[in-house]
């Protein structure tokens, strides 16, 4: 569905093919709900087990189909299944196994651009997610290293840093266009602050860190 948007103006036929295929895949997934690792089992576990469930995949699929097709049925699906599919599960992570934070950021654009007020709760979730990862706040739910890098316990920390930075940058762009800030208790976080925080993470990875070492293979 997302790719169909990219090809819409340059190759309409291919764009329609992609969108039609996305519709079929979504209908299959929604009809046969469940985690892929339940059937593949040892082929993907223990390294790629679906720990967080299938709910985020369905919501994300509906969100992109709504964006690509503007079909009312997908908007209604999102609203109808918001609670059932746990849209509020913003657990400060965005990756292959948990996409809830990204879903809320994506759908919140509809509200910020004034296109729909059906999704106001998704914007509130997005604001809450951003608030929870900002440094220096009492309720932050991620850690920061002494040098300023986002840190979450577990392996492969850089994928967490880059994905969270992507969401910070994306949401800052949405907020800039809407001339909005993220409410943070008695204060607020501006789009410029979110961009600065995202840039700080990327700069750290590329070598602006206490060790003066690039963490990206092939750079620095």
TrEMBL record:
Record keywords: Carbohydrate metabolism, Cellulose degradation, Glycosidase, Hydrolase, Polysaccharide degradation
Organism the protein comes from: Fragaria ananassa
Catalysed reactions, semicolon-separated: Endohydrolysis of (1->4)-beta-D-glucosidic linkages in cellulose, lichenin and cereal beta-D-glucans
Coiled-coil parts of chain: none
Molecular functions per Gene Ontology: cellulase activity
Domain Glycoside hydrolase family: 1-220
Protein name per UniProt: cellulase
A single GO BP: cellulose catabolic process
Root EC class: hydrolase
Gene name for this UniProt entry: CEL
Similarity-based family: Belongs to the glycosyl hydrolase 9 (cellulase E) family.
E.C. designation(s): 3.2.1.4
Record-linked Pfam families: Glyco_hydro_9
SUPFAM superfamilies to which the protein is assigned, alphabetical: Six-hairpin glycosidases
């Amino acid at each position: 569905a997302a790719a169909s948007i990219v090809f819409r103006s340059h190759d309409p036929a291919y764009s329609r093919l992609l969108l039609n295929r996305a519709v079929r895949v979504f209908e299959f997934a929604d009809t046969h709900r469940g985690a892929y690792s339940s059937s593949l089992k040892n082929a993907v576990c223990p390294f790629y087990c679906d720990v967080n469930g299938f709910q985020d995949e369905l919501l994300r699929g509906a969100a992109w189909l709504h964006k690509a097709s503007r079909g009312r049925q997908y908007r209604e699906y999102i609203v109808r299944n918001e609670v059932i599919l746990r849209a509020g599960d913003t657990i400060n992570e965005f990756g292959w196994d948990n996409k809830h934070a990204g879903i809320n950021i994506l759908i919140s654009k509809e509200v910020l651009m004034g296109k729909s007020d059906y999704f106001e709760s998704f914007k509130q979730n997005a604001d809450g997610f951003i608030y929870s990862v900002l440094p220096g706040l009492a309720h932050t739910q991620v850690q920061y290293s002494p040098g300023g890098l986002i840190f979450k316990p577990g392996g492969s920390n850089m994928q967490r840093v880059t994905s969270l930075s992507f969401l910070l940058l994306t949401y800052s762009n949405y907020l800039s266009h809407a001339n909005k800030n993220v409410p943070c208790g008695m204060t607020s976080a501006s789009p410029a602050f979110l961009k600065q925080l995202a840039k700080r993470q990327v700069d750290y990875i590329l070598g602006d860190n206490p060790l003066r070492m690039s963490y990206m293979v092939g750079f620095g």
